[in-house]
Amino acid sequence: MNVPYLNEGDVAATDLSLSAKYAVAALRARSAGFVTQLSEMQRLTIKPAAAPVGSPLASFLRQYDQTVQMMVMALVTPSIENQNIFKLQARLTKQQFVEIWPSIRNDPRARSIAVRRLDGLMAQSSLKAIYGLPSNFDPSVYRGIYLQSRRTVGLRLKGNARCSGLLLSSEWVMTAGHCLQNQDEQSVRILIDIRGNGDLSAITPDDLWPRSGTGEADQDTIDFAFLHFTPDAGTKAILDGIDSDAPLCLERSDIGYQEPVIVIAYQGDSPVKVYDNAYIWFPFRVGSNQFKELSADTGAKLQRLAEAWYPDSPTSQEHFFEEDMSSFEKAYVLMPDGVTREYRTARSYLGTRPYFGMDTDTFHGNSGAPVYTREDPNRAVCVAGVFDGGQADSEKIVAGTWAEHEFAIPISEIVTYVSSADLNAARKNDRQIASRQALVTLLHSLWIQ
Fold it and tell me: 62 CB contacts (<8 Å, ≥6 apart)?
């Protein structure tokens, strides 16, 4: 294909006449529905890169070159067919990058070459649907979010608003275990917006279960707790109504990479807030194919950061990359089946726990809040986990790593743990045994929908 304004080396050429020709081509293509800009095209790398014959990088570069040539075709003749072929080639380039990642993971030069080319494609606005994330949702999802917000409660400990929680029923609240560290039920007040007008009622629980081993100590291997309360007849009727209006389900399947989620939480005594536009970056449980994609994307991010922070020091680049990439790989523990991996890692001074990582804009006091799925408009939003923590308020991040995100305890791990928990632990009477057993039954009924 002879296209004079696209065969003179890198698109980032400084020749003004060449740039003008690009601008004219882009303007003509825009009128035909193919959107691109000179600044975007300058991110592409046209100049061929040398790669050993037969190496994985060589196959990736061939695929990349095909994609760029199809972009040229779509730019010169912006038919729907050419645009679709270009998008298909771009998708195949990303797939090829994922496939070769294990082979280039330990090759700094190959990583840099591949990531730079992938970045160029990801900068193209015409490929937003290929490389972007879904950010619009069915209106019914928002109604479900509104109804579920009635289930979020606040917790006050010794007079101070501290955490959030989820109203599982008219008698039980689920929260994070660390919120109740060194506390008993008599020191806690559950803050419930019973009438939906922002006027919070404070209720004293009569049971805290499990009382130990679930987040009350830093080295506990999981982080959750349940609070039982006994409402008066009028309050119970209202709470039963909330339960009926906002059906609850606990996510049975594992939420996957890049799936959207939300957090509904209190921040101190302020009204309940929805933390929206959040995505799962580090799922709790992944198969081999998803882990390969997750590893490639994480590695690409770390390669970008390494080059940005240490542009003049290849040694420092590699040290940073290797340290963080290794910590990511170790965090995903290979299960006995030899295929599944689970995100089980220690954070700061905390013990090793099951987590999933996401990117929400949370604040101190949001711990214990429910994390909901939100993608499928054909079903109710479901609880995926209990929010466990994240970055400190107003913290200035001076050196981002793959681990810098908010995190939650998967609901599946909570249900599994409770299924074998001791119902008799720290019980005061037989009524507590019965209510705890009813809670376990409720969790299983909500989990298998």
Answer: none
What is residue 218's DSSP assignment?
T
Query: Under DSSP, is residue 318 helix (H, G, I), strand (E, B) or coil?
Result: helix
Right CATH number for 136-287+340-449 from 1.10.10.10, 2.40.10.120, 3.30.470.20, 3.30.870.10?
Answer: 2.40.10.120
Query: How many Å apart are CA 109 and CA 25, to the nearest integer?
Result: 34
Rounded CA separation 89/70 (Å): 8
pLDDT confidence band for 396 (50 / 70 / 90): very low
How far is 176 from 358, CA to CA, in rounded Å? 17
Cβ(386)–Cβ(224) below 8 Å: yes
Distance (Å, rounded) from C-alpha 106 to C-alpha 57?
12
Residue 208's pLDDT is what?
Answer: 94
Q: Which residue has the tokens 């003509």?
A: 28
Encode burial over 384-405: b for 16+ CB neighbours within 10 A, e otherwise.
Answer: bbbbbbbeeeeeeeeeebbeeb
Give DSSP secondary structure letters for 389-435. Answer: E-SPTT---SS--TT-SEEEEEHHHHHHHHHTS-TTTT--SHHHHHH
CA dihedral 347, 352, 353, 355 (to 10 degrees): 50
Select the highest-mean-pLDDT range: 96-100, 145-149, 254-258, 445-449.
96-100
3-state DSSP helix/strand/coil % of the chain, to nearest 5: 40, 20, 40
Distance in angstroms (rounded) separating the CA atoms of residues 62 and 50: 11
The dihedrals phi and psi of 342, each to the nearest 5 degrees, come to -125, 140
Quote the pTM value: 0.88
Ranges of each domain in the chain: 4-131, 136-287+340-449
Asked whether the predicted pLDDT for residue 71 surpasses 70, the reply is yes
Two structure tokens written together for 80? 């729907």
Q: Is the pLDDT of residue 10 over 50?
A: no
